[in-house]
Amino acid sequence: MSSLLEIDKLSVTFQLPTGPVTAVKDVSFTIAEGETMALVGESGSGKSVTSTAAMRLLPELAETTGAIRFNGENLLEVTPKRMRRVRGNDISMIFQEPMTSLNPLHRIGKQIGEVLIRHKQLKGQANRQRVLELLNQVGIPEPERRIDSYPYELSGGQRQRVMIAMALACEPKLLIADEPTTALDVTVQAQILDLLKSLQAEYGMAILFITHDLSIVRHFADRVAVMRYGEVVESGRTLDVFEAPQHDYTRMLLDAIPRGRKEPAPADAPVLMSGRDIKVRFALKKRLFGKSEYFEAVRGIDLSIRRGETLGIVGESGSGKSTLGRALLRLLKSEGEIRFEEADISGLDKSGMRPLRSRLQVVFQDPFGSLSPRMTVGDIISEGLKVHHPALNRRQREAEVIAALEEVALDPAMRNRYPHEFSGGQRQRIAIARALILKPELLLLDEPTSALDRSVQVRVIDLLRDLQKKHGLTYLFISHDLSVVRALSDDVMVMKEGRVIEHGSAETIFSNPREPYTQALLKAAFLESEAAA
Amino acid sequence: MLIYTLKRLLQAIPTLLIVITISFFLMRVAPGGPFDGERQLPPEIEANLMAAYHLDEPLPMQYLRYMGNLLQGDFGPSFKYKDFSVTELIMQGFPVSLEIGGLAILLALIIGLPLGIAAAIKRNSTVDYLVMGTALTGIAVPNFVIAPIFALVFGVLLGWLPAGGWNGGALPNLVLPVVALSIQQIAYIARMMRASMIEVLGSHFIRTARAKGLNEGEVIWRHAIRPALLPVMSYLGPAIAGIITGSVVIEQIFGIPGIGRYFVQGALNRDYTLVMGTVVFYGVLIVLMNLIVDLLYSALDPQIRYDD
Amino acid sequence: MTSESKPYSGEQRDGAPLPAGGPNPPRAPEPEAGAAPIGESLARDAWRRLSQNRAAMASLALLIAIIVVCIVGPWLLPWGLAEVDWNAFGTGPTLEGAHYLGTDANGRDLLTRVLYGGRISLSVALVASLVSLVIGVLYGAISGYLGGRVDNYMMRFVDIMYSLPFMFMVILLMVVFGRNIFLIYAAIGAVEWLDMARIVRGQTLALKRREFIEAAHALGVRDTKIVTRHLIPNAIGPVIIYVTLTVPKVILLESFLSFLGLGVQEPLTSWGVLISEGVDMMESAPWMLLVPSFFLAATLFCLNFLGDGLRDALDPRTR
Fold this sequence. Notes:
The complex is a heterotrimer. Chain A is of the alpha/beta class. Chain A has 20 helices and 20 strands. Chain A has two domains: about 1-80 and about 210-255, 3-Layer(aba) Sandwich (Rossmann fold); about 270-525, Rossmann fold (3-Layer(aba) Sandwich). Chain A has helices at about 45-55, 80-85, 110-120, 125-135, 145, 155-170, 185-205, 215-220, 240-245, 250-255, 320-330, 350-355, 375-390, 395-405, 425-435, 455-470, 480-490, 505-510, 515-525, 525-530, and strands at about 5-15, 20-30, 35-40, 60-70, 75, 90-95, 175-180, 205-210, 225-230, 230-235, 270-285, 295-305, 310-315, 335-340, 345, 360-365, 440-445, 475-480, 490-495, 500-505. Chain B is built from eleven helices and no strands. In chain B, helix 4 runs parallel beside helix 11. The interface of A and B includes residues 97 and 152 of A. Chain A: It comes from Salinicola corii.
């Protein structure tokens, strides 16, 4: 096989006002015609910068050295005019952000057709015919109608399909796919990957696939290069790299899949919290007269959690899982009955709930949004103490904060700093410390690891596991990430459109899913084969 | 669209009612009457005058009468320009004000938008600094300072253009007032367009456009300008209001017989009906302009459909 | 240090992922937590960034100079506000009789009058901005925090107020009630609070949805504490930015009114009044127009520069 793209000692340095930052250092790899190469790494590894450099789409303050040879031609040396002939024609690219990558003011047909005008001088009816054909190929229903849609009328998955249609319009030899499925729900992810695979076979193009998700790499790529801190630490055939990783970092990444299962809670453990027929609805349109319109986010859910147990709630975005969690903690208005230790708490008002708050705590998904940027870490963690233990003096509070920080493995000396000085994983630890300091019994974990890199995720999960064991905590664990849920939960509820469609022990759900939707979810998450591996 | 327009017009009614009502009662609680002017009138004559203008009736009656007349487009008589009704004065002044204001807003867009676009494309270059520095000066020097300086420099010292007067709207007479009126808006529009353009140029769909192989001209012209115009469009309402307000001083300085001048003179002469008439007229104008701007906005943004 | 600082961790950098090669440069990687100065609050960070902005700092210095001169100057000058020098009617700048910037047609010292006028203009800026700040912040925060139907009505009211031809209502007010400085304070403040209310409401609504507010609710923190400890400190950045935009607008509005002869009354004066007098005399005594115009323009210029600088320093997106 001759090499189609050859990246040779590529380095990219950004001249920032604060000084030069080298994002990519001496990176070399090749892609042969028709082959799929995956570039894998965590955030900040330089994988996206590398691929963007190949398109010469980096900002001007990026200095690029080395060579990027496409069919023997060094793209770093060609004229801008020549480069524009390559872009969209020989090499095309799809991006991570399907929601914002299309021009909101142009119809999608026009946006796809633009490439054909530019590179193939295809105009008028012929242009429209080709666009329709492309829309059909990428699986957009009713292309005749959709060709005149604006992007806002399409879902995220459909927009990504439009991006793919645009990228394929000129039958490129190389498609660069920069995390094309990261922003999508798992089932949609699987569809898009299938689509890319089948189109690759049809068009015979090579794909450079940039991702942080190793399970995708295993199923999708012929070869893989692992990047860290701007350097390729290991590359080779996917099978070889996965079977026998050479570099410590690769091994660590491969290991960074949550493993193990939770020890079941004692069978005679009492029920800590239960809910019956819980419903939550949001007003969409309030009308002065006549009927207001509502969106029913949660449509009648029953559940119960025993002390020491973890209930995993799984679902895609919009399934109502986070809403349900907030309703159970009475952070949202809901209908139905919620019991905590036998007592009905659904009727309590704010002050009635207050004494219970220290026993029911929560950790949110967004490590950047869940800590007030204007308060020091110490103030953030001790805020709950001021509410629930007003008798404590300053020094006692301080001692508690130090203990809480140590418990989540953070340096207590950091308590005088502000959240923006911490990384995502550290912030999530701070959020956990804020909850733990009140010695809660039930902890609502709302996607606590979804915004974190895999390697960080695993350590946060280990921490949560240890804490549960140590304090006998009960977890309500909300996630779209099935592997994390499996590692942590006793019971699992699968939610879709506000309803529970399947409920059972983690073992049953994962080994023997009943509902087609659950099966699709599992398949999409590649769990079957991982279990086999 | 039509239904939306009608709905907006209906919504404008309470706004205008408030304007009219406040103006009406403000004037009636004002100390003194319209006729305690230069010389003391004999009591009977004053009483006759009061009756002629229905000022002897109870306030609510007067209010209803005023509203009734308004509905027929009658703002009542001017107290100072005795031979004219306020409506006549407004109708005389309006075409003049419209010409000056319309040209000024046009000029502001024609100059401000390209300047902002150029500064955004050449961000942090000499062009950018020059444009933004000038714009900031334009904002910092108010039009009532610029206008007399223009009149002095170009009118009196250099003698290139008339320093004032209307002359039936001859072109040389238009230049200085229109330029003076538009400078501040040019500056605001250039700054807004630059900021909005920079934001758009950093967006993902511009990256997509570049990845398609379009050249920079096509990227900017086809993909960047229209989305960048949206925030500027929503500023157009306040811009028009600003031009209308500014025209009050500009007309005063250049001696242009528009509504603005009647308004100032009315205010200084305690010609209450004239002041009130102009305020109501301006109110209607601003409400209408905002509506037009919103409709224009919807023409640019497909996501906004005024269909309910 | 924490387990995150182990060599394999990409985590120190995950706060600053490199963007996917868009036209924007990547942010500098977050400094290693250990390297950052201890406990740098956002306010101190903003100040550091502002102080690196030379244009903004020069503006700040000049602005302070103007304010100090306007406050202290009149005491140091030999002439009073309305004091007439019978030997100098409409003279140009001269050392004789200590008329450094000349006199007006009535023989009053121009520098003295400009400084007194500055006091009025600046006090209007201060008071009217404060009025708009207080009304706007309260109105906006209440509307945003209560939300729902109350918010709906409160904002509908603001919309109606927006479409009023306010400038003209203010002028009408001045005509009817006479030219009174307190009326100017109140009238201008009452005009300018609308934007502030909208901004604060938007902030409050956005903050209310932020997870740290939810976390505070989950901790059982009382509403009043949530407002004072979480909402207000976090909404303060945009409010400060907006205030710096309001102040020049207010100064401009006051001088506009004064220019039309509807502002402060003799013997008081303001920059707008002086400019208006200067326009009448500009052919024979151009300094009478140029001096107050210069003071006004310099102040507005500085405030705008400072506002731009503050916006850059406080805007998290430029961080």
